[in-house]
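Protein 1 of 2
SEQ + STRUCT:
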Amino acid sequence: MSTNTPDPRFVGLLEGARSMQPRTVALRRQIHRHPEQGLQLPHTQAAILHALEGLPLKVTKGESTTSVVAVLEGERPGPTVLLRGDMDGLPLQEDTGLSYASEVDGNMHACGHDTHVAMLASSARLLSDRRDALRGKVLFMFQPGEEGYHGARYMIEEGLLDDGVEKAFALHITSTTKSGVVTSRPGAIMASADAFHIHVKGRGGHGAMPHNALDPVPAAAAMVGAVQTMLGRRVNVHQPAVVTVAQIKAGTTTNIIPEVATLDGTIRTLSEATRKLVHKELKQVVKHTAAAYGCHAEVSIVPGYPVTVNDDVVGQHVVDLAAKAMGPTWSEPMQDPLMGAEDFSYVLQRVPGALAFLGACPRGIDLEEAAPNHSNRVLFDEAAMEHGVATYAAFALDALR
């Protein structure tokens, strides 16, 4: 893919990744056919273990999850660098028409984690061939349960970082940016993600006589608008925040005023201070809006992933490193963070590091028309995986030079 001359330190790296492309593609497609969700992914774990066979790695399996941790020791002692690839799929029925489409009903690798596993496994092979250039250890983190199951947290609790990790890096593929281009940024790169559940209680009655009841439906409807007003009036405009009411439920038929209405949704922010403020203000708005309608409301907020914050130095360095490893055409600074969330945030809370995105928009598809991640029609250009393998390897070689 690349036509630019890379940094002399990385000469041959992209070519090495390209030579492994058949192996990378085969592993990706094997996993794509058999997606698994959550923390227990036995088929995916078995595929990873098979792919790592014969390499000079110390491999351990998770206890509470089906994670895999593989450690490569360089020829000389030194620090440890962590590379992560997540493993799990999503509850979607695939509609891509691919010859290797999911064979599991209602399950799909719609976020590209199959490519992450394949790229990380090939980078382990590529770095194993370059052990003499490594001063330290590379820890390959194959992580289940990224899609809302806190898989990284489980791995940390089992001792993932106990022996000390100096730097950490993860790639995430995306279908809506140019194939092969690596993008990242210093600071916040992805949002926190919390779920909220609102229970509005009134008093049920006949739909023809609302004056004899306390209807929770108007109160619930008013809360939707009130929350958006709260964002515009209580949250600093320079501190992005999103509150989305994704579900409203009430009632059983047309002529009954229900006793209860419920609202459920998500909160996204790019700083812990804003996160706390939105939690506080949401509860206040809901409480007083309910009272204005004579109802009572309770709010529960379920904490999700923290803000994903790249180290200022490492975040910028990843962009520069990709350019040096593959040429400036294949690296771009990321202007704005995404409001999606990532549990690599747990690692970055403890270790200086960065998350970066790897573009993989299929050739012949306009960026604006490409189905996004989490779509049942999402497609990824497999040729981009060469650059992912090379970027993983370059990060380790640079950190352990």
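Protein 2 of 2
SEQ + STRUCT:
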Amino acid sequence: MRIRTLVAAAGALALSLVSGCAQQGAAGSSANTVTYWLWDANQLPAYQACAKGFEKENPGLKVKITQLGWSDYWTKLTAGFIAGTQPDVFTDHIQNFGQYADLKVLEPLDDLGIEDSDYQPGLAANWVGKDGHRYGAPKDWDTVALFYNEKMTKDAGLTADELNNLSWNPKDGGSFEKAVARLTIDRNGKRGDEPGFDKNNVKVYGLATNGGGFGDGQTQWSNFAASAGWSYLDKPRWGTKYQYDSKVFQSVIKWYFGLAEKGYMPPLSDYNVQSNQANTQIAAGKAATAFDGAWMISSYAGFKGRDIKTALTPVGPTGKRATMMNGLADSVTKASKNKEGAKKWVAYLASDKCQKVVGGYGVVFPATKAGTEAAVAAYRKKGIDVSSFTEPVADKKNFRTFSYPIASYSADMTALMMPAMEDIYGNGKPVSSLDQTNEQINLILSQ
């Protein structure tokens, strides 16, 4: 659902080169039809149910929903903006929001009456552009937690209580690194904390890999960097300078990728965005734990023969735990020929009426508090405890929640940070190399 590839970055760049092209109007849109695109197949039934409710309240209006895979979604959306075949409404990701807002392909939604207090903290504010106009209505949210194989952790002598009370630091890794080392087993049966452990012949890794993490590290290093007190930008939203040159950040990255050097986490060469992500490694029994997002709850719960539980992210040097709290939104395209119907649909999507329906399917946490409550209840009925994801939102004293970096030129940032992080992770390049990458990104951002 939230897997990122360079498709979105390349698409946004292509869009920027032709943003002056004439627009013809949304594909299939008409006075009585609203076209709506989303990428998550798991959520499709929930939104089909919402469409029925919307159509009942708005006689004469129909919603035509199109579901596309992640990569195809952004490619076709970008092509649609260029050719005039974009939908009336689409599910938007904060990663691309800045670029789309700057290119003026989104319709302002100030007249929808979206109030911050109607949604989980911070979600509504994230979709206000630099110009002060709203371009997205909050849809859902997610946080990150530590998934773990219960049998493997028990065999290692680790209890659920211990896993929920881990701490870390960039010097020796703290109790988190000790736990990951304990969970790592080489092909001779030696654990990572035992004499004779062979880091070059590992059978089960203590921590799965989700790759280098691009420039956001959502399910990789972000919780560690934030719990060490670091922030992506000089301002929470629409910052003017990235801070990848921070010594704090670089110490975190050196320690985190150092887990692979010690044999506790797979090397970058083992990772594949299509076929060998962290969840695949857990399912195959190749890793004991993985940091992953709330959108993956149902996937981990469905692994046959694996009893997967979740734990909170570890406490960092600041004394707090941390997790990215990302949130999607629904946006209206500026070239829509049915803006009135599109805005009615977006307002309905952002209302408790729809969000409680979506929550009842137990596949995502909707943005409204009532929608979240419905989702928690639905997960509970399935026998799934989601407190590791909801507790960070409720407990601001002990948790730091933070957003995906919101700034202009995010596609360019991603394009520069992806190879930079992979060079450090896979090729042993020093973390100080991020100084130059950060300078390049900030040069683009200052334009």
